[in-house]
Amino acid sequence: MRVSGPLLLCFATGLPAALASQQSAGSELWRLAAVTLPLPPALATGAAAAFWTPVQGNGQGQIGLDLLQTPAVVGATGLIGAVRVPVRHLGTVGLVYARMGIGDLVRTTDSPDPDGESIPFYAQSGGFTWSDTYGSTGVGATATYHDTRFDGARAERWSLDVGVAQRIGDRARVALATRGFSRFANDPTQDISLGAEYRLWRGILWGTTPGRLVGRYGLEFGHPGGVDHELGAGLDIGTPVSLEVVLTREASYGNVAWRGAAGLRVSVGRYRVSFARDGGVSDLGSTIRVGLEASLR
Length: 297
Prior knowledge:
7% of the residues lie in helices and 58% in strands. By secondary structure, it is mainly beta. The strands form 2 sheets. A 14-stranded antiparallel beta barrel has the order 1-2-3-6-7-8-9-10-11-12-13-14-15-16. It has a two-stranded antiparallel sheet with strand order 4-5. A hairpin with a 3-residue loop joins strand 12 and strand 13.
């Protein structure tokens, strides 16, 4: 017996099928992508990370692309692309586009065999993003158009997301970010993320290679159910290599699940390559994310 993609999606994310309305099901596609983040979304950095939080305050032009692949049994793929350029006296502005979908859904009639017609199921968004830094405080905002389609039904909406990040000396950083935010109520189409990181150690790892270890903690809420908790750490090995891990307790929709994720970033000149994956859940396999980013000079 073949299980349908949307049903597997609900099972993989712990979302009851009765709640899998069109827009919320589209949001769950993005939560499948979010499990590859090895840190709280509010603390994510990089060009494509502008999708998770608009606060990206390095003041440099960037272009980035993340490719996503869920387990074969779910069959969802996606991409996140962004370009950001500095504008004098305004900060950094850019465009963000993201799409996640399941492409192998087929229609059946009175037998399990497909009748040759596929069922479209995707969530995509495009937005204009801005961020700037004022002293030790970073702020940002993104206006986003969301388009979700499942079979013949289609839903469209706009959201305005904001982000704030505050550095505390040279040891700590706290941040807040929203994603898909449209109203002050629990809504399955939106998330609010809080994150904090603290430098636990800085020194020499071996020879003359510097190292830095940070601890991280995050919360996610704004959607139905309980609050999600994230506990993680990051290790910088010199300038080019960063390792990150996170353990997440998800309580969305009242179903508690534990997830882990790990990531590796390598910088070479003005390029940065990243790889991340989650630890899988319910024996379905892991979701994988591969990214490439370049600084614009």
